[in-house]
Amino acid sequence: MKRFSVGIDLGTTNTVVAYAEAGSDEIHIFDMEQLVGPGEIKALPFLPSLRFHPARGELPAGANALPWSESKPATEQPVVFGMFARRLGAQVPGRLVASAKSWLSHTAVDRLAPILPWGAGDDVLKVSPMEASASYLAYLRAAWNWRFPDARLEAQDIVLTVPASFDEGARALTVEAAKRAGLPQIRLLEEPQSAFYDWLHAHRDRLAAELDQTRLVLICDVGGGTTDLSLIQVAYEGNQPQLTRVGVGKHLMLGGDNMDLVLANLVEKRLTQGQATTGPAQAGQKRLSATELSQLIERCRNAKEELLALDAPAKTSVTLVGSGSRLIGGTRSTDLTREEVERMIVDGFFPLVSQHDGAVQRRSGIVEFGLPYASDPAITRHLASFLMQHAGRTERANDQEPQASRASDSLLPDTLLLNGGVFHSRAISSRLEHILGLWRGEPLRVLHNRHPDAAVARGAVAYALAARGLGTKIGGGSARSYFLVLELPKDNRAQSRSTNPDAEAEAAANVAQAETINAVCIFPRGSEEGKEILLSERVFALRLNQPVRFHLVSSTDDRSKSPPSLGDLLELSANDVVRLPPIATVLHTKSSEAKQQVSVQLATTLTEVGTLELHCVSTQDPGQRWLLEFQLRAGQTEPSAVNEANVEPPLPQRFDQALAAIDRIFGSRAQKVEAKEVRQLRAQLEKLIGNREQWTMPLLRKLFDELWQRARGRRRSAQHEKAWFNLIGFCLRPGFGYPLDDWRVKQLWSIFEAGAQYGNDSQVATEWWTMWRRVAGGLEKEAQLRLLDSFAFNVQPDAEAQQERPSQLVRGNMEDMLRLVGSIERIPASYKVEIGDWLFDLLNQSLSASTKSSANEGPILWSLARIGARQPFYGNADDVVAPEVAVTWVDNLMRLDWKRVQGAPLTAAHLARATGDRARDLPGEVRDRLVTRLLGINAPAAWIAMIHGKVQLDEVSQKGFLGDSLPPGLKLLY
User: Fold this and answer.
1) From 366-380, 391-405, 434-448, 666-680, the region with the lowest mean pLDDT
2) Which of 144, 126, 137 has the alpha carbon at shortest distance from 101?
3) What span, in angstroms and rounded, lies between the C-alpha atoms of 135 and 144?
4) C-alpha dist (Å) from residue 857 to 839, 847, 872, 889
5) Using CA atoms, how far apart are residues 885 and 905, in angstroms rounded to an integer?
6) What does the alpha-carbon distance between residue 198 and residue 207 come to, in Å, rounded to a whole number?
7) Residue 961, helix vs strand vs coil
8) Degrees to nearest 5, angle at CA 424 with 422 and 430
9) pLDDT (average), residues 813-820
């Protein structure tokens, strides 16, 4: 038997560890040794979930040494964890990694890429959300093993908690983070359940009496990054209560971080508008930078915790420390009072609303530091939506109680458990209790939470004890039903996609355009964990040795009295489902046959870890199984819900004739074809299947697949190669947006090193580079860096250097190269700065050489707009050029004669475009100057609008920005 049961609450704000020794049911908090100052170590009951990345030499030698630390090379950059990290982060802006847990659940960024601290300079060490989360777990593992060397943490029974609303991707990443920290064997538990387990454990000796009048418990857990809602049904078998989890809320990035941000915005206004109590604040002062705001948020978090504590003072001071030479003179301070903090949080986050006033679905929410917070900050409205969503389930629970009233208020919870530090404030907890009492028509019973800051960690231990029969266990199985999508709604066969951080709300809005999604239930809600369920009533055709993709959605919605059953074919509301990361792979067989189709059934398991596992099982040989795995990297998740393994979209009536035309030109059997016929292939296809600008995504990708199968045919002549490059690049643009595009792009990339067979032909060379520009959005960073190398060789003016270029390199003219380099967004920001400066040199040379515009001025300015864009088309926002660099570029453009350089105003507008993310947006005064200049030339209103706020480009502006049209149904976000 393992010596300890250990519960870990890996929180957004703090990490807490609890444990119980075998043979005992007493739960203890593990005090973790951590730095509280330079060289000063103290054991505390929690570890702030923070990392501080000091500059080299910032800390004296040994200042960050820990009892278990090993000597590290001097070249290794130091990292400070815990309380000392919080203290340093409040003093030095731009070097603190915070809210890693929120980033781990943020599907619109690459959660494995080094992007934190968000908005930090190039001189600051950056880590991925995954690495940050793993580092906190590794820290507590080291602290535990130092304390208990004979009972190492990795050998104990570990339960790690996650928000109940975490999707499969976030859960899988949490498990992976634990593995990287050296904890390969863990179980996941939902945080609201864990908080309730702590209450159950505390009342284990008199549980029946404590729950005698309870039938439905609402658990409201407001943490640092999320608001988590769960419903627990209480029934009786004999004299013992039977507990079943019957409802779980949607993922809400709404919690203490949002409250800290609201307070920081208030304090910022005071500090920058002459209301500071100390320091040199003056009216009209510019707003804080992203790094300064990060520091201020940390200060406001400390103030909030102080003012919401049980013994809170009437007010506290918030001080913003300057940096560098401004360290003393730049210090500013103002006061926050307990009354105003409670008022802002109570009225802003817990307003009085009706039980029928659901959350307001706005276009997008607050975006700070790249995190897309919930668009409606009112937790009480989200709570109303949650209860309406689960009305069917609670009514079914009510039907089992013959004595219960059938009035509408009986469908509301009668008991409340609050968890989270925010509920230390009696004003906040009372407001929520009051609202629920109004909805129900009578006061609720409120369960006393003795450990609101440690209940989740303690409850995880109680869960482990209950699993061994040492306590009451909560049943309910899976909190969600899982569905395999069979086809898209007719009006939504292709949707937008972006990896930008503030695009998540837009993507959700696009999905909401669909009325219904047709799907089959593969794992009903309430199914047991650890038990495989075979969908025996449905048989699917699985293609082997070629790419397939499956799309799954989950739903907690339960308005109906009839929950979905295994195998049910349903029409689901797109508003009520959550898209899971796609499953895309090439499933192989030992058969030598190139393509093989087999009949399979789907087997699904909700593992004890808490993640979904899906197998395809052969109907002919049940021993032959294929495990399907979710793709978790950003850029691999397309909102399109087509299951390409099962659905063949309709094609134009004369598609067979179009295919015959393609086969005549590029087919395996060489046919006598005149050059003119090759040149006219595109026009011929348009006559058969319509104008190519109207070709749909399914048709485009089908044409790509047919062209790729005939890739060898391009080598027959320069005309063949030119036509093939033109068509295949057009059919795969922009390199993403449809199932299996990542696989298609990899196939196409395989020909890059060999180059074009007729690359010396200038028209072939142009089509070659146009093809790569069109599909660049689907290329990985490494491939884009190879394109950058080719760009550099082709624009190199040094004749000696040109002779060193690879023999297979296809020559490209200046315009081709300018448009290519503007299309590669995954290269590091430092490279973009170099390219941007080079573009200005090129522009100045062009302007100096002639009094008239040169042919390259347009492509130069277009490329500059893409290179310096605040809102990339597909790239990660952490690779955006720093605002101070973009300011310099805007100033350079404003010095030009706009009558002569007519493309400069629009380029400047794109460089100054607003995103809502302070780490990317240009200072307000710069944007104001630009707007004034644009108004002076009567610039289009759309240009002004995108500088003032987030807007979506119209079709014409979109095409101009991208340099190409997008396939029908695919649009650019913002």
Assistant:
1) 391-405
2) 137
3) 14
4) 10, 9, 22, 15
5) 17
6) 12
7) helix
8) 90
9) 95
Residue 138, helix vs strand vs coil: helix
Q: Can you tell me which residue has the tokens 């009451």?
A: 472
Residue 369 CB neighbour total at 10 angstroms: 23
Which of 105-119, 177-191, 508-522, 777-791 has the lowest average pLDDT? 508-522
- How crowded is residue 671: how many other Cβ atoms within 10 Å of its Cβ? 11
Q: Pull the structure tokens for residue 101.
A: 């847990």
Nearest to 879 by CA among 827, 915, 822: 827
Measured between alpha carbons, how far is 857 from 861 in angstroms, rounded to an integer? 6
Predicted confidence band of residue 973 (pLDDT cuts 50, 70, 90)? very low
Question: How much is the pLDDT for 237?
Answer: 80
Q: Which amino acid is at 324?
A: G
Torsion of CA 168, 170, 171, 176, to 10 degrees: 120
- How far CA 870 is from CA of 1, 237, 881, 929, 960, in Å, comes to 56, 61, 8, 17, 16
How many Å apart are CA 857 and CA 900, to the nearest integer? 11
Alpha helices in 51-204 (DSSP H): 82-91, 100-104, 129-147, 168-180, 191-202
DSSP-assigned beta bridge partners for residue 475: 244
pLDDT tier, 581 (very low <50, low <70, confident <90, very high otherwise): confident
Structure tokens at 819: 């448009």
pLDDT of residue 447: 95
- The pLDDT tens digits for 57-85 are 888 888 889 999 765 655 567 899 999 99
Task: Decide if 271 contacts 334 (C-beta within 8 A).
Answer: yes
- The highest-confidence range among 536-545, 805-814, 900-909, by mean pLDDT, is 900-909
Q: Look up residue 162 and give its two tokens.
A: 């996650």
Q: How far apart are CA 242 and CA 202, in angstroms?
A: 17
Asked, as a colleague might, if the bond just before 734 is cis with ω within 30 of 0, I would say yes
**Considering just the CA atoms, what is the radius of gyration of the chain in Å?**
30
Neighbouring C-beta atoms of residue 966, cutoff 10 Å: 20
Q: Rounded to whole angstroms, how far apart are CA atoms 175 and 919?
A: 30
Cα–Cα dist 564/560, whole Å? 9
Enter the tokens of residue 705: 């697949």
- CA 406 to chain centroid, in Å, comes to 42
CB-facing half-sphere around the CA of 926: CA atoms within 13 A: 22
C-alpha distances (whole Å) from 670 to each of 349, 711, 720, 757, 759 are 70, 13, 12, 18, 22
Report which secondary-structure segment, H or E, holds 315: strand 315-320
Q: Are strands 216-222 and 227-237 parallel, antiparallel or unpaired?
A: antiparallel
The tens digit of pLDDT for each residue in 453-490 reads 999 999 999 999 999 888 899 988 887 888 988 754 44
Cα–Cα distance, 566 to 588 (Å, whole number): 28
Task: Specify whether the CB–CB gap between 749 and 777 falls below 8 A.
Answer: no
Q: How far is CA 189 from CA 186, 611, 774, 790, in A?
A: 10, 11, 45, 50
The predicted model scores a pTM of 0.76
Rounded-to-integer distance, Cα 106 and Cα 167, Å: 10
CB atoms within 10 A of CB 687: 14
